[in-house]
Specification:
alpha/beta; Rossmann fold; Tyrosyl-Transfer RNA Synthetase; Structural Genomics Hypothetical 15.5 Kd Protein In mrcA-pckA Intergenic Region, Chain A; 3 domains; six-stranded mixed beta sheet; five-stranded mixed beta sheet; 19 helices; elongated
Length: about 425
C-alpha cells in the first residue's frame, strides 16, 4: 500500500467523489505532496459507542488522502455531538451528556487508528472539537461567527426546510445552529493548523460549503490564502436493490467486534449481491484497479464461484479486524457449511451461532443419556416422535458435525467446551443447546 496515488483520480475510479467546491483547483492544490503536503480533515459526531459501515466510507476517504501523501485529520465531535446535526433526521435528536459523549469518543477512537495505521504516509491526527468549541462565549459566537451567516441561506438547507414544513416536529434553535459550529470547525482548523480541505458524505455538502464561506469572510482583505480551501464529498453508499446499506434483520453492521463480531462482519460482505459487490470492492478495500477489473472479469465468467464476494469479505474484514480475525471468520464459515464445528474455539463458536435458535438445558438431563427423539422435539427440529425418527433414520441429523441415528444417546461426552451441543437437521437448519 506504499504506492503513491493521485487522490482525485483514485476517488473518481472508486465512485467516491460526488461534489467538490472546485475540482480543478483542488487537483492543483494536491499536486505536490512531496514538497507541499496538505492537511485534510473529516468530522465524525459520536452518537453511539461504535461506528457503522456507513461511517467507514469517510474513514476510507482519509485513508486515500494518506495514500496520496497528504495528512489526514479525524475531528471527533465532542462539541458538535452535544448539539446534533439535523441532516437526515426527521425529528429532534436526544441530547447526550458530556460524559456520555466522552465515553463514545473513547470507544470510537481505536477504529480510526486501526484503518489509518495500515497506510504508509504522513501521520494522521485525531482531534476533539470540544477542545476549541468549549472556549467560545455566546456573545463571541454571535458577534464573530453568527454575523457571517444569512438566516435566509440556512433555511434553504434541505434538512432544515423539511423540518420547518413539519409543524409537528419543527426544528429547535439548537439544531438550526449546528451548521455554524461545523463551519467554525473548518475555520478554526484552517486558521490554527493550516487545514485546507474538508471531506464528508454528500449530506454534509451544505455544511462544508458554509465552512469554506466562513473562512473567506473572516480572512483579511490583504490575504488571498482563504481562496485556497476546498470541500469534497462522497456519495452515500446504497444497496442496488434499494435496501438500507449496512442494515440486517438484526440492525446495523458495526465497526467494533463487541457490536458486530468479525464472523458476522465477514458474512455481511460474503452475502453481498453481485451488483453490490462490484461497487463495494472499490469502496471498502484498497485493491488497485487492475486487480479489481481482473476480479470482476473472472466473477462474470463464473459467478457461482463467488470469488468477488469472498475477496471483498476477506479484504474488508482484514482491514478492520486484522489478518488473524479474518482467517478465523473464514474458517468458521467453512466449518458451519461442512458441519465440522468441533475445531472452533469457544469464542468463535459463540459468534458463529449467535443468530441461530438457542435453548438452555440442565446438565443433569445428560446423566443417563438423553433420547434424541425427545431432543429433536424439545428444540422444535421435529414436531412429533414419528417425524423425529424419520429424520434420524434418514441420516439427516448430526450433533457437533457427526451423523447420528435414533439409537444415539446424548451425554456429557458430547459437550463442546463443556457447555454446548450443536444440532443440525438437513444442510442448513441448526439449533444450539447450552448446558449448565
Amino acid at each position: 500500500m506504499s504506492e503513491r496515488i493521485d487522490l482525485i483520480n483514485e476517488l473518481q475510479w472508486r465512485s467516491l467523489l460526488k461534489d467538490c467546491t472546485d475540482i480543478d483547483g483542488l487537483r492543483d492544490h494536491l499536486a505536490d505532496p512531496d514538497n507541499n503536503p496538505r492537511k485534510v480533515y473529516c468530522g465524525f459526531d459520536p452518537t453511539a459507542d461504535s461506528l457503522t459501515i456507513g461511517n467507514l466510507v469517510p474513514i476510507m476517504l482519509l485513508a486515500h488522502v494518506k495514500r496520496a501523501g497528504h495528512s489526514p485529520i479525524v475531528v471527533m465531535g465532542g462539541g458538535t455531538g452535544l448539539i446534533g446535526d439535523p441532516s437526515g433526521k426527521s425529528a429532534e435528536r436526544q441530547l447526550n451528556t458530556i460524559e456520555t459523549i466522552a465515553g463514545y469518543i473513547d470507544k470510537q477512537r481505536p477504529i480510526y487508528s486501526t484503518v489509518l495505521d495500515q497506510i504508509e504516509g504522513p501521520d494522521h491526527q485525531i482531534l476533539n472539537n470540544h477542545d476549541w468549541l468549549k472556549n467560545i462565549s455566546y456573545i463571541e459566537a454571535l458577534r464573530d461567527i453568527g454575523k457571517h451567516f444569512s438566516v435566509n441561506m440556512m433555511m434553504q438547507k434541505e434538512s432544515v426546510k423539511e423540518r420547518l414544513n413539519n409543524r409537528e416536529q419543527g426544528i429547535s434553535y439548537t439544531e438550526f445552529s449546528y451548521m455554524i459550529l461545523q463551519a467554525y470547525d473548518f475555520a478554526h482548523l484552517y486558521e490554527d493548523m493550516g487545514v485546507t480541505v474538508q471531506l464528508g458524505g454528500s449530506d454534509q455538502y451544505g455544511n462544508i460549503v458554509a465552512g469554506s464561506d466562513l473562512i473567506r469572510r473572516r480572512a483579511t482583505q490583504e490575504s488571498d490564502d482563504a481562496s485556497k480551501v476546498f470541500g469534497l464529498t462522497a456519495p452515500l453508499v446504497q444497496k442496488a436493490d434499494g435496501g438500507k446499506f449496512g442494515k440486517t434483520e438484526k440492525g446495523a453492521i458495526w465497526l467494533t467486534a463487541a457490536r458486530t463480531s468479525p464472523y458476522a462482519y465477514y458474512q455481511f460482505w460474503l452475502n453481498a449481491s453481485d451488483e453490490d459487490a462490484r461497487g463495494w470492492i472499490k469502496v471498502f478495500t484498497f485493491l488497485d484497479q487492475v486487480t479489481v477489473d481482473s476480479l470482476i472479469a473472472r466473477h462474470d465468467e463464473n459467478p457461482g464461484k463467488r470469488e468477488l464476494q469472498r475477496t471483498l469479505a476477506q479484504e474488508a474484514t482484514r482491514i478492520l479486524h486484522g489478518q488473524d480475525a479474518m482467517e478465523n471468520a473464514e474458517a468458521a464459515g467453512k466449518a458451519l457449511f461442512s458441519g465440522d464445528i468441533g475445531s472452533l474455539d469457544e469464542q468463535t463458536m459463540v459468534e458463529v451461532f449467535a443468530s441461530v435458535p438457542t435453548t438452555e438445558h440442565s446438565k443433569s438431563e445428560l446423566a443417563d443419556g438423553l433420547d434424541m427423539v425427545e431432543m429433536l422435539k424439545s428444540t422444535k427440529l421435529a414436531s412429533s416422535n414419528r417425524e423425529a425418527r424419520d429424520f434420524l433414520n434418514e441420516g439427516s441429523v448430526s450433533i457437533n458435525g457427526e451423523k447420528i441415528d435414533a439409537d444415539t444417546k446424548v451425554t456429557e461426552a458430547h459437550l463442546l467446551h463443556g457447555s454446548f451441543i450443536a444440532i443440525r437437521r438437513g444442510k442448513k437448519k441448526w439449533h444450539m443447546t447450552n448446558w449448565s
